[in-house]
Amino acid sequence: MRRLLLIILLSLCAPTLWAQNGWADFVEAYVSRHADNDMKATEALLGEWEEIHRSPFNLNTVSRDELLLLPFMDEATVDSLLSYRTKHKGFTDLSELLFVWRIGYDARRFLPLFLTCPPLPKAPPSWREMLWKGNNTLETKVDIPLYRRAGESETTAPEHRYLGNGWRHHLKFQHSWPDRLNYGITLEKDPYEPFATQVITPLGQRTNLPYDFFSLHFAYRTSRGHQWLIGDYRLQSGQGLILGTTAFGTKHQRMLQSSSAKILRPYRSSGEADYYRGLAFQLQLPWKQFVQRFSLLAFASWRDIDAHTKGDSLLTFYTTGLHRNITELSHRRTANVWVAGGKLSHNAPRWQAGLTGYYAHYSHHVAPALRDYNRYSLRGQTAGGMALDGSAKIGRHWAWQGEVAMDAGGHCAFSQALRYVASPATDAFHFFLQHRSVSPRFVAPFGHAPMNNNQVANEHGLLLGVAITPWPRATLTAYIDGAYHPEARYRALPQSKALETFAELRWKNRRNSYYLLSYKIKTKEETLTERLQMEFRTTHRISAQYFLTTSKFSLVPTLRATLYHAQTQPAQWGYMASLRVSHHPSPRWQWTGYIAYFSSKHHTTRLYAYEPQLLGTMTFPVYNHQGTRWVVQGQWELCQGLFLSARYACLKLFDQSTIGSGLQTIASAWQHDISAQLRWKF
Asked: What is the C-alpha separation between 187 and 231, in angstroms, rounded?
């Protein structure tokens, strides 16, 4: 009875206990900490979280591995949540999460974006119910540019001239029965790609039927936890040394949230790289003496890829997914890759271990032009590797995890991390130490791990981080990451070094507002183009933000500055001031406004920031030169389950008469874009 009364009280107070933060508030808070990181990885990671936000996990049935996918959820917090769920036989309301030990401020603010708590079913659903009576979402979106680019001009060479209009649009359908069944389809046309046409290229005829890209998936999970997936999917294992995705996380996130989870998820994005296409399954092995402790993951994938081929050789991989002219179309799906592998895992209450292996075969002999920085990259038609990963809890305060991998040539890679939490109940002091050592000859074409190098190879590094709560309202997070590259890398001779330092102070002012101040310095050795010497090139970035959020209003003013200097170049400055305002006057409609002024006279001081975007778009514009940016966005619920969203964006440069370069050049200092999105949830 006492628990029931507390739940009722918390539910009535939910608007204040669980701040009414939207998706834009979450992205703003996350991006503010990760500017100047690998933006491609950040975009992919936020894209994964957006897909979860669209189809939230059921709090009463979500698995441990799925919880570890969420931001602000480390292993101790997840285990505490699962222990509470088991003890109380499920949750009755999201507000009950406040009773869970270790649920922190960030999780309290944003977990409702990724979790739901529907009533527990009275009886198992039938196949007919799961196939036809679940949750459906039908969505279409169009982006319309109000300008022309140089690639559309009749004076452009025929092989480079854009073949389609500048509209970008996609069509998505998804059906789900929570935690059991999910299937869907994604169709997309990128800007300037031809739509439902046939084009003759030097390699023959290319056809879009009618969209340039499509993706399908069908995923089913049994009541015993077995999972089957047909179509497009993503995989990650261990620390990502041999099997990972770009959505692996930044150094800041890995410092506070580290796991060795097995990740097998349907691929719903419109990106045309970094996914698998085929069959995958995950089984909980029914050994009586080890119930629920052993699991087997197996997969097979066969997928066409974009590449520049010459005879039986593959010279270059293309991952942009753009097929706008005859030249780009001639590289479309010119090769394919077959991949198969699996993982056997053992999961105990205080430790986990897994053995992973894969084999890949390319249709062409991979033979990129030989350069110093790619001397040991993938060459030939096959690749493979094995890895052993694990994690363990050591007492109340310590946790360890790591992975050791070996490729088909016998070259090794290591990654291991040690975490210490002084007070698990309050996180008053959090210490993190990560060591990585990857051979220059290590080949892992499907590996993605948080490293200084662009690929999982040629790096020895050490990351040391701390998170301190010196006062009840203040949290200080900092890390220092040093890397040494024994062999040549892109833009650097052999034996180069890099150092990155980050510090962030968050001060909670009141219940619904806080300040965020961050500073990052990144320095690395690069080769002088005029002579074979090295110099250190350093970038400083500082950001100051204020977040104010209420049930109907949010305000985020931001100041950012960048300083770049090198041993042989003068210092360059860049700065930006922006303001984002959101208003929710009623549950049926809301609007967001954004305005920014920026000045960055050199490309080395370019700035990144999040601006309001419609769901399904996860890109970060680059602010360069001197100018202003305006964005206005609104969403209306036309009727029950039918949502219309619209967006207008404008860019004005003061120091340039054109925008962009090459085929993307706009012959004006103004750029106007409009977007519209229609979503029907039924």
From this structure: 14
3-class DSSP state for residue 47?
helix
The per-residue pLDDT for range 627-637, each reduced to its tens digit, is 999 999 999 99
Strands (E) across 1-69 are located at 57-58
Backbone torsions φ then ψ of 58, nearest 5 degrees: -80, 120
Contact 273/321 with Cβ under 8 angstroms?
Answer: yes
pTM of the predicted structure, to 2 decimals: 0.89
Between the alpha carbon of residue 499 and those of residues 35, 161, 277, 335, 409, the distances in Å are: 16, 43, 38, 38, 30
- Tell me which amino acid residue 122 is: K
pLDDT band at 114 (very low <50, low <70, confident <90, very high): confident
Give me Rg for the CA atoms of the chain.
Answer: 25
CB 49 within 8 A of CB 74: no
CA distance 573 to 605: 6
Residue 350 exposed, middle or buried by CB count within 10 Å (0-12, 13-18, 19+) = exposed
* 107 and 73 Cβ atoms separated by less than 8 Å: yes
Confidence grade of residue 651 (pLDDT, cut at 50, 70, 90): very high
Q: Could you report the per-residue pLDDT of 429-481, keeping only the tens digit for each?
A: 888 999 999 999 999 999 988 788 878 999 999 999 998 888 888 889 899 99
> Which long-range contacts does 79-88 make (Cβ < 8 Å, 24+ apart)?
85/59, 85/60, 88/3
pLDDT tens for 406-419 read: 999 999 999 999 98
* β-strand pairing of 213-221 with 204-207: unpaired
| Rounded distance between C-alpha atoms, residue 486 and residue 492, angstroms | 11
165 contacts 193 by C-beta, under 8 angstroms: no
Q: Which residues contact 379 (CB under 8 A, 6 or more apart)?
A: 365, 366, 367, 368
Q: Which residues pair with 468 in a beta bridge?
A: 429, 476
612-to-46, 138, 147, 617, 634 alpha-carbon distances in Å: 14, 22, 21, 10, 10
Chain-centre distance for alpha carbon 600: 27
pLDDT at 3 over 80: no
For 195-215, letters b (16+ CB in 10 Å) and e give eeeebebeeeebebeebbbeb
**Class of residue 289 by CB neighbours under 10 A (exposed 0-12, middle 13-18, buried 19+):** exposed
Tell me the β-bridge partners of 218.
Answer: 183, 230
Average pLDDT of the segment spanning 646-667: 94
**Cβ–Cβ < 8 Å for 148, 155:** no
What is the C-alpha separation between 184 and 165, in angstroms, rounded?
27
Of 196, 232, 229, the residue nearest 214 (C-alpha):
232
Question: Is 70 a residue whose pLDDT tops 70?
Answer: yes
